[in-house]
Amino acid sequence: MSLKKAFCIVFLILLIDQCVKVYIKTHFYLGESVKVVGWEWFQIYFVENEGAAWGAQLPGEYGKLTLSLFRLIIAPLIGYWLIKSVKENAPKLLVIAVSLILAGAIGNIIDSLLYGVIFDASSVTTRNIATFLPESGGYSKPLYGNVVDMLYFPFIKNATWPEWIPLIGGKTFTFFNAIFNIADMAISTGVGILLVFNKRVFPKTEN
């Protein structure tokens, strides 16, 4: 696969990811959810998180800064891996996987780097819907912006664990409870390709 096609994958995913995030940020109040027509188990549910993919986070202000700086360091390394893979004529599946991971990483970097500066705060209590480039300024400084998540697939809701299971027996649960975004999906899909098709993306070379 050519570098041009790889960058097209990155650009398209980034474009879709950011368009969706900006729309959600400027049309939904924090915590608002709507069911997608015809899909009882699929909701658009606006939440923000201060951490990594799928809501993982490091506690405290310095945890947020550390994570943002880590993203800024790791993204160029992934970009180098992509360019190197293309130049070395690596398997197409590897190039696709790395392109997906790079797009996802950059997508969430944009949120943490810029969103705190270009949007005012979304609110659960006042149901405030954020505005783009507010006159009063953003809700935080660069590198401290929250990542916008909105995709929610609660396949099983308010189910109850069997009583005989230790510790959790009788308690209710929801499966699948994570709320994520398109950048997270791209990262997870890329990593999944690397794991599932490991032998195809990293073929053994004969000595």
Please indicate the percent range of residues in DSSP E strands (runs of 2 or more): 5-15%
Q: How would you sum up the global shape?
A: globular
Strand order within the widest beta sheet: 1-2-3-6
Provide the helix percentage: 40-55%
Number of strands: 6
Largest sheet: 4 strands, antiparallel
Low-confidence stretches: none
Output the number of helix runs.
5
Question: Can you tell me about this structure?
Answer:
It is a single chain. Strands 1-2-3-6 form a 4-stranded antiparallel beta sheet. The longest helix is centred in the middle third of the chain and has 28 residues, at 60-87. The protein has one domain (3-38, 48-148, 181-201). A hairpin with a 7-residue loop joins strand 1 (33-35) and strand 2 (43-49). It is built from 5 helices and 6 strands. The model has no long low-confidence stretch (mean pLDDT 88). Helix 1 runs parallel beside helix 3 and helix 2 packs antiparallel against helix 3. With 207 residues, it is of the alpha+beta class. The two termini are 25 Å apart.
